[in-house]
Known about the structure:
With 581 residues, this protein is an alpha+beta fold. The chain has helices at residues 83-96, 154-163, 179-184, 237-240, 272-275, 286-293, 332-335, 339-349, 356-373, 383-387, 411-431, 493-507, 534-544, 555-565, 574-579, and strands at 23-25, 31-33, 37-38, 57-64, 71-79, 99-103, 123-127, 135-138, 145-149, 166-167, 212-220, 225-231, 249-255, 257-258, 261-267, 295-300, 308-314, 323-324, 378-382, 398-406, 441-447, 478-486, 513-517. The strands form 5 sheets. It has a 9-stranded mixed β-sheet with strand order 18-19-15-17-16-21-22-20-23. Strand 16 and strand 17 (308-314) form a beta hairpin. The longest helix is centred in the C-terminal third of the chain and has 21 residues, at 411-431.
Amino acid sequence: MTIRTEPLRLSRRGFLAAGAGALAATALGGWTPVHAVPAGSSGATLPTPAAFPDGIALYQQAYQNWSKEIMLDAIWTCAPRSPEDVVRLANWAHAHGYTIRPRGAMHGWTPLTIVNGAPIDKVILADTMVHLNGVSVNPGSAPATVTAGAGATLDAITTALQANGLGWANLPAPGVLSIAGSLAVNAHGAALPADGEARVPGNTFGSLSNLVTELTVVAWNGSEYALRTVTRANADSTALLTHLGRTFVTSVTLQAGPNTRMRCQSYTDIDWRELFAPAGAAGRTFESFVRATGRAEAIWYPFTDKPWMKVWSLAPERPATSREVFGPYNYPFSDNVPEPVTDVLGQMTAGNPAVAPAFGQVYYNTTVAGLAATNSSDIWGWSKDLQFYIKATTLRLTEGGGAVLTNRANIANVIHDFTQWFHQRIERYRALGQYPLNGPVEIRCCGLDRPDDVQVPSAGPPTISATRPRPDHPEWDTAIWLNVLGVPGTPGMFAFYREMEQWMRGHYDNDDSTFRPEWSKGWAFGPELPYTDQRVVEQVLPDTYREGVPADENWDSARAVYNRLDPHRIFSNSFIDRLLP
């Protein structure tokens, strides 16, 4: 869970965007991006790109990622109105030595869009959420599908699906995400089947990438950039399903299944030692909840004993004790942070990290009180309304961790080992008077990107998805997401993340499990910054996608597809050039 404590404010040069792709109507009935400075106006501070394509709005606007650790007062941004505009933009960029970075909801940590400190004089952001956001549902096809523009939000897509009796079983918590951005980093939810539960056709318990039936990208055809539609049966599709921003998706078609009613129960009275007990332990354990309902998430606030445990279950009829909800985001106390929490957070950001235990306790108390005040401990409604719960107005925290791929029978032991290690390390640092981590631990599980889930001819699973199965370990059927959050700027935070990442890579590297980073979060931690461990970026991480998979469907084959479809690297940046040379 992430929570934001204060509204966005204009930066010192007045360009800080109030939101990704936000618009304001003009007196002439057109539109103007909020806090934008149009090209050619007296307020522009950047050199105007020469011969920019006519009819595509170009303006200076600020950029910031989710944790506000990558921020620019101004960068050239444009709003293509159609996929054909993106093609014109790509060919202009190729001719004039520019790179194009697609911009969606900016809900991410990894420098896949903008690299801190890198030159931006030859970079154009293409905001996909202004115009490339159409949604069309085809409920009568086999399978039922939805086609969406790159900038369509998960909120908009699932709302359209719901109107047609359709939905998805496994959704990320933030509905504000764009679909193209979600697929770029194989966004996922917190869903597994309960014991004995059969998967409903049209759905997957893996990532959203595994729902794709076809997608359209901008690709080099030998003489120029052009639109190319790639079906799931095409061999190139496996690399494109999770592509880390190395291509430009203009639209995507995904399969869907029947919509479902769900129940979500919250528990705040289970001691973490009971909840995260090893396999076979008695009591209310994470393992027992997964066995019973399949869908669970723990949010363990720092230096507290009782996590916030959310448990979702299928419930065609409303249980007598459940409150019916008619929309998403049913935990307002986590989106609108009360003053006691902001007071403690302010002390931490002002240089008093020792208040971290108080921050955790205050936030736990706020959750308990908020659930009671909003009658949200037991709610019932449609699938998307229970799975979406993180708004863009939540606290922007840094996050590190990743996925442990393993057999379902190992869920309890994987979680037990991690939570024991984390507790011991954080308590050791506290004894030294140090508080490098001060945000919650988040634990959730989902399935893998099984090819059998796809109801159209398929060339295979997403090649570099974190939830891509390992053929040499067919028994591995589960991804356990272990993430820890922290307040940006906390002394020693990235060094702790580095220690944690190295422990996870070493501990979960055997016949029972393997570790993969979560693409949208922090990884390759150096002592002071993420994404700076050169060995991880250039060797260890690529090797993760070479082990146990066919040579023609691994890291190197995916890289070859990206380089063939974009040989001039107009859809890249300096970080991607290191990661995917």
